[in-house]
Amino acid sequence: MGELYPMESNSSLRNDFRQELTNILTYWEKYTVDTEEGGFYGRLTEDDQVVAGAVKGSVLNARILWSFSAAYHLTGVPRYRELAERSLRYIKDYFMDPEFGGVYWSVSSKGLPMDTKKQVYALAFTIYGLSEYSRATGDAVSLEWAKGLYQDIEKHSYDLRKGGYLEALTREWNEIADLRLSDKDANEKKTMNTHLHVLEAYTNLYRIWPDKELAGKIRELIGVFIRPIIDPKTGHLVLFFTEDWERRSDIISYGHDIEASWLLAEAAEVLEDPPLLQRVQDLSVKIALASTGGLRPDGSMIYEFDRTQNHRIEERHWWVQAEAMVGFLHAWKLTGESHFYKKFRALWDFTREQIIDRLHGEWFWGVKGDGSLMKGEDKAGFWKCPYHNSRACIEIIRRLED
After folding, report:
1. Out of 90, 105, 130, 225, which residue is the most buried by the measure of CB atoms under 10 Å away?
2. What is the C-alpha separation between 21 and 3, in angstroms, rounded?
C-alpha cells in the first residue's frame, strides 16, 4: 500500500474531486434533461446548445443511469436518485425490446426505434447501469432486468466453440454484416472493447447477485484478457480479432490499456480468489507501465499509436485522462511506487487546466497535439457521457479514503 505523497493533503484532494463530481452532474441536470420528450437530450454541441432531433443512444442513457446511481450510492443526494430514476424509466419504456429482448442501439428524439441491432456493448452498459441502480437503492425490479440482459448475452452472443462474445446481431439475434460500434472500428466479430465492458458489467452485477454461473463467466473473461487480448510481450491490449481469435489490429489504445488495468483487478477482487487476484494485480501493474508510453511531458495521455504506420494520434481526449488518473492511482496503491502517484497528479493538473470547462461545466472532448481545443465535438452525445469523468471522481474519492 502506498504512502501519501508528502506534498499532498489527502482531504483537500478528496474535496477537489467531490466538487468536480458535483460540477459534472450539475451540468447534466441543467443542460441535458429533455423536458419535452422525456429522458435526456441526444446531443449538445461544444457550446452547450441542444441539437434538435438528435437520436438518442442506448449507451449514453445507460451511462447516465450508472453515473447518477453511483453518485447517489456515494453521496446519498436525493436529486441524484431522481435523475437516475428518470433514466431508468426512459430505458425501460423506449430502449428495451419488448418482443425479442435486449436493447435497441438507438431511438429517435421522440423515442421511436431507429437502429434496432443488438450490439453486445450496449447490453453490457445497460446491465452496468441497472445493477448500479439496484446496488444503490435496493430495487429488485432493476436487478431482474439486469439478469434478463445477462441471459440474453449468454444465450445469443457467447461463442460455445471458441469462447468469448460476438460483437453484434440483428434485432432478432441473427448474424449481421456490420458489427462495428462506430466508423473508426474494424468490422470484426470479436473486440477487446466489448469484452472489457461485458467484464465490467458482469463484475458489477455479481456484487449484488453472487451467482455461481456468473462467477464462472467473470473468471473466463479474465482468462480471455490474460490470453489472447493482452500481448504478453508488450503489456498492451490487442483491439480486434476474428471469430477464431486471430489478431486483426496493431494499434495501441493507451486509454483502453490503462482502463483495463484497474477494471481487471476489480473483477478479480469480487471473486475472492487470492492466487488469481495476485496474478491479475501483477498484470495490472504491467499494463499500467506499458500505457506510460502514451504520456506526454505535460503529464497528459495521448489517444493512440498505430504501429503499422508508426503514427501517433497526439490528441488528448477527456475519457483517456479520466481513466489514466484512476489507473495510475490504482497502480500506486498496489505498489507504493511514488512515480505512479506523480503521474496521477500530473494528469489531474492537466485535466483541470486544459479539459474541464470552468465556465459552463463538464469536460471538453479534448485538445489537439498543439494544445488547442478540439473544435466541433460534442459536450454531450452518443459517445460523450458523464460516465468516464464522474466515475474517475468516484473511484479516486474512494481510493483516497482507504
Report:
1. 130
2. 25
